[in-house]
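wait is this the right file?? whatever heres the structure
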């Protein structure tokens, strides 16, 4: 596994990271033993960056990772943790909380659940519109100075918010959705990151499975699967989007790889400052994804991919309408 550095001040990580959200019910029931085995397989495959959030499964994901990582060399992996999304019984979302006192409270719980004395990259999942970002980042800076956090990260914010946060403390990376069908980051955010020397960790690189090559028109989301509420998986939009996948499949077959590998490699090819996060919850899906880190895409390959999936070609927003307003960029 090759390595990449997250910005000028961030840690060195594997060229691909593991996103653990799907292991805690986001896409329906996940098998606990298989999830833990997948984390182990990722580490053994050279993956060092593991991303989670305190609200994934209301703490379930952090406890799961604590079990999976028990006994491992703490310096052998990088933990990225998001915080601040408020949840209620029944998985309702209740907004964000970025108050300084809440930052420290969230961190204390995460440290305990994860069974560690520090978080490598700590980031608010979304901006709290009632709290200046300088206040939220200032609290994280205090925790960095105290040794509980190593690096500051951000998530789903626009270029202006990135600049304001970076003025308080150097930002290691921005985590944001970036894929062949979600490219809004390219207009203003990515240039700002590169100007400031900030890395990017890309989630949703397979469009939540939509462009993995494994979804088909007759498939429906299982109970508890958030894709049942996703506009891109809705009737009408789904058929259009899967037609794009079939165009991409032809490019993948000519390249001798799978659709998923091609989609992941495309994100990685957008710059050495970008680390794609693979949301595998099984060893089978992980084993398919890992070779993407070694897939070399030529200029001709990239041109063919661009023809297969032109920018802005996908139909439907990347989140339900209620969540779009909390994003720094659009689709």
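ok assuming it is, sequence goes like this
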């Amino acid at each position: 596994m090759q390595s990449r550095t997250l910005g000028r001040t961030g840690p060195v990580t594997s060229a691909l990271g593991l996103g653990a959200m799907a292991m805690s019910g986001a896409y329906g029931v996940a098998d606990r033993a298989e999830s833990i085995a997948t984390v182990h397989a990722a580490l053994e495959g050279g993956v060092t960056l593991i991303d989670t959030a305190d609200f994934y499964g209301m703490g379930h994901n952090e406890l799961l990772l604590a079990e999976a990582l028990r006994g491992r060399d703490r310096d052998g992996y990088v933990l990225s943790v998001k915080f601040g999304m408020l949840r209620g019984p029944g998985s309702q979302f209740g907004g964000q909380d970025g108050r300084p006192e809440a930052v420290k409270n969230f961190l204390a719980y995460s440290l305990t659940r994860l069974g560690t004395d520090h978080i490598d990259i700590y980031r608010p999942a979304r901006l709290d519109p009632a709290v200046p970002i300088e206040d939220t980042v200032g609290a994280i800076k205090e925790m960095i100075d105290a040794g509980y956090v190593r690096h500051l990260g951000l998530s789903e914010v626009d270029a202006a918010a990135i600049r304001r946060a970076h003025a308080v403390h150097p930002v290691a990376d921005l985590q944001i959705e970036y894929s062949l069908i979600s490219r809004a980051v390219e207009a203003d955010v990515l240039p700002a990151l590169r100007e400031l020397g900030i890395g990017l960790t890309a989630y949703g690189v397979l469009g939540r499975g939509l462009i993995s090559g494994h979804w088909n028109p007759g498939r429906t989301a299982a109970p508890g699967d958030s894709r049942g509420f996703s506009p891109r998986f809705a009737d009408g939009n789904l058929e259009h989007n899967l037609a794009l996948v079939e165009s991409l499949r032809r490019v993948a077959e000519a390249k001798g790889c799978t659709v998923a590998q091609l989609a992941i490699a495309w994100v990685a090819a957008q710059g050495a400052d970008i680390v794609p996060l693979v949301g595998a919850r099984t060893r089978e899906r992980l084993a398919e994804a890992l070779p993407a880190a070694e897939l070399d895409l030529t200029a001709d390959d990239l041109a063919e991919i661009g023809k297969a999936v032109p920018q802005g070609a996908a139909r439907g927003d990347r989140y339900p309408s209620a969540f779009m307003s909390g994003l720094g960029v659009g689709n």
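The CA atoms of residues 137 and 165 lie 6 Å apart. so i think its the right one actually
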